[in-house]
Each structure stands twice: as structure tokens, then as C-alpha cells.
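User: My collaborator sent over this chain with a note saying "see what the structure looks like." That's all I know about it. Can you take a look?
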Amino acid sequence: MKAAVVIIIAALLAGCGGNQSALDPHGASSVALKDLIVLFALICSVIWLLVTGFLLWAVMRRRAEARRDPAAERRMTVAVRASMTATVVIVAGLTVASFHTTQSLHSGADAPVFVSVKGQQWWWQFTYRDGNQAPLFQTANEIHIPVGKDVRLELESIDVIHSLWIPSLAGKLDLIPGRKNVLTLRADRPGTYRGQCAEFCGLQHGHMALLVIAQDDSSYRQWVAAQAAPAAEPSDAEAAAGKAVFMSKPCAACHTVRGTPATGSSGPDLTHVGGRQTIGAGLLETTRGSLAAWIADPQTLKPGNNMPLVPLTGEELRQLSAYMEGLR
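Assistant: Without extra context I'll predict from the sequence alone. Here is the result:
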């Protein structure tokens, strides 16, 4: 029996940590949200104990004894009025606390890093901008941020309602077609934090994840410089042949590879796709094998996504996967 209790408690506590937990905060907004969660839990626990205690007292008290007590009705009236007053005070207090916590999600108007976020079925497009709001470069499903600095995310959707949620860094906020919302991220320490779409948005809603990688200032600047650069030229004959395949197929009409004639905008920017940790919005780890599998049959891996099946020979598939892997 004791072993079972220990196992159950350990299983419950296992959800309190990790790179996607609101109870494992690593930023100012997430700390404020954790404090709010703890406040709600404590107040609700106290209320539950009080209500349960009164119910037990009422059940155990003898009815005949209560009828003989002339002051029982008066005490009941006082108790009901006190309970109503306490309810109003508690609800109002929690509402005010929630309001002030929500404000922390929208701070950072003077943030040094600006990123436009577009939610799509079913992936994330990130456009980094300079101080004048001019676009610097695009990436997909993975963003890097500097530790200790505010990052302003401007959220919008181009199809249905999505919701961006990175539990260890901030609360969730919706992406609504035709409207821009603002969310501020701030990581207090380096690390990789997982995020997720938190609003049901269609068939592959569960496969719409993202990674936020917090780096020290030097590493972040190096990453920005690398991302702003055009795609590297293929390093070997196989990858060079893969580039030719990419340009001759519909790939170039849907995707951008900066520094090449490929300027499509309906799919993710692939300029540095080989350097990302995952593909398919967190579906697969980025390896040559997973790139080849995705290119060969994207609908089997992620049914309903907008990437069509492109007919390729086995040799073309090997060449194209080599080219994609080399885009770092």
C-alpha cells in the first residue's frame, strides 16, 4: 500500500518540472503565473477544508439537540451572511490578482528583440525584425532569444484561431485572424523550452509545437548573424545535385531559400532548415533520414498538412535530402 502511494505521488509530481511546465518557471511572466496558481490553490484548499469541516459537523450533530437550541437559527443566519460576504471578497480579490498578473504578459514595449509570429495550420512562422520593424530573416517552429532580455512577440493568425503557450516562460495568448496580440518573453537562464498550440485548430493541432532556445548574448548574436546570411552553397556533388532537384520541382514555388531563385512563401523558409532541432513543428528530430521521410510522403507523417506529394525517384530523394541537411 505504501509503495502504491509513493508511486502515485511521484507520478503526480513528475508533471511539475521539465521544459514545458507552468510550475517550473524561468522568466518574469511565468513566475507571476506560478504565484497566481499557488494563490488559487491555497485559497481553494482552505475553502474546501472549511466547507468539508462544516458538513461533517452538521452530519454528526444530533437533530434533536439542534432543535432545542434557541440560538441555532440566529447562528445559521449569521453563518450564511458571513459565507456570502467571504465569497464576494474572495472572488473580487482573485479577479484583481488575475488582472495584475495578466498585465505582465503584455509588457516589453521597449523590448530590444521583436519577432512577428504567424500561426498556420500547422506550423509557426517567425520573422525577426530590427528596431525600425524591417524584417531581418524568417525561421520556422524554432526561435532563439537572449537570456535576461525582453522579447516582444506580435501574434497573428492567417487561417483559424491558434494559441501560443510556452509554460516555462509565459502564459498562453491567442492568435486571432485579423487581429494582433502582443506577448512578452523573458528567460532568466539558458535552456530549451518547449511550446505548444493551446487552442484546437484542426486535425494536426497536437503536432503544432515549437522550441524556444534561450542563449547568452554572445551565442545569440552569432545565431542571428548566421540566420541573416544566405544559404550556404552545397559542399559536395550529391548536395549540389539536390539543389538542382529542389529548383526544378514545385519545392521552389512554395519555399524560400535565400541566396537562390527559390522565393516561395506558402511554406516555411528553408534557408537554414538543417540547423533546426526538429521538422514538422516538433514532429521529428532533424536528421537526413527524417528529412527524406518527410519529403517522400508528408501526408503519412502529418495527414492534412498543406505540403503535396512531390514525385521523386530514389536518387532524387537522396540528393534532395543531402541538400536540405546541408542548409545550416
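A starting point for your reply to your collaborator: The longest strand covers residues 113-120.
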